[in-house]
Amino acid sequence: MSEIETALAALRARFLSRAADDLQALRKWSDGGAPDDDAHYRVIHRLAGAAGTFGFDDLSELARKADEAIASGADVRASQVLAVVQELARLTDGRPGRAVDEGVIQAPMIAKTALPSPENGY
What we know:
The protein is mainly α. Helices cover 61% and strands 0% of the residues. It has helices at 3-30, 38-53, 57-71, 79-93.
């Protein structure tokens, strides 16, 4: 494994570790056990941007939809936020496939094409 691959793997592991913490916070929030505040919105917003960087495109898309719903004034505990919670649970449990998206099951893509290798021309 190259230095870049090793560094990316470490960052990805750190993302997943933080995702487990995010999951607990969002579960408590979505269940009504925590007050509405900007911290939860920031978690959703951060996941929308960061998840795709580490190859979790499904989570990034779901978080983006939730982020947009919250920004438009929708109920912050709407189905879009619950979809993010379900996808985070799937990722942190290590289960394959996509948790939710109108019944479509897909495996998350890992961002291997961004790594230098002979296969992708870098």
